[in-house]
Amino acid sequence: MSDNTPDPLSKRAAELLAIAVTVAREAADTARSMRAEGVSGVSTKSTDTDVVTAADRAVERQVIAALGALRPGDTVLGEEYGGTDGAGSVRWVVDPIDGTVNYLYGLPQYAVSLAAEVDGVAVAGVVRNAATGDEWTATLGGGAYRGRRRLGGSTQTDLAQVLVATGFGYDAKRRAHQAEVLTRLITRVRDIRRFGAAALDLCLAAEGGVDAYFEKGLNPWDHAAGGLIAREAGLLVGGLDGRPAGPDMVVAAPPAIFGPLTELLAELDAAGGP
């Protein structure tokens, strides 16, 4: 194989990304048009503040149907309907509307997030802000992009000057613990931002719109695509104390910041509490 010949995984990742982008754009169009018509079918899930709308369900059904037509042997893991059956090695992970509370209130920070995993490893991902049309993509080993602009993350090296994005859980006791962490963290960094959509937060970190991001309690669909985009932009993405990213903690930060930030978060018991 010559140096100019793409390896099979890179070619496969590019093919999966092309499908992901097509499906995510159509799904984002549906989310935006349903928002323009007025939010309906609002109910709650884990708590009274954890909302789901008719659009969340409709968009996920659309994504599942589109992927089923294009890739009938694959499985799909979604936020609203769980997993579908499939015999292949590819699993799609979808958050139909990441940032549902923003969607409910008409705030322009909600997105369709779609990632393709091969044998459990994310190889392609797209996050599309349905309100604005902004789009971030990545393939494993192929870099991360916002449109055609390749992303490289923040160059900040001083933790005290870091702008950190984060999010909160829906359980009141968890929120109380997270608030305690923030009151101690905010004196050690430049400032804190909370936008309300984990996938978009990870993309902001990937492009340097914030220097770093952390959050406890994320599900796979919250960070499958955004995490790949952040990693391909050169950020480290993981948990605390050397653990992988998961429900206990997801941290995305440039290499110079990742160690000091995760050490500080561990000191503040950010992964603890309910």
TrEMBL record:
Swiss-Prot/TrEMBL keywords: Hydrolase, Magnesium, Metal-binding
- The leader peptide range reads none
Q: Keyword Hydrolase, does the record have it? A: yes
UniProt cross-references to InterPro entries, sorted A to Z: Inositol_monoP_metal-BS, Inositol_monophosphatase-like
Q: Does the keyword Protein biosynthesis apply?
A: no
Name of the molecule in the record: Inositol monophosphatase
Species this chain originates from: Asanoa iriomotensis
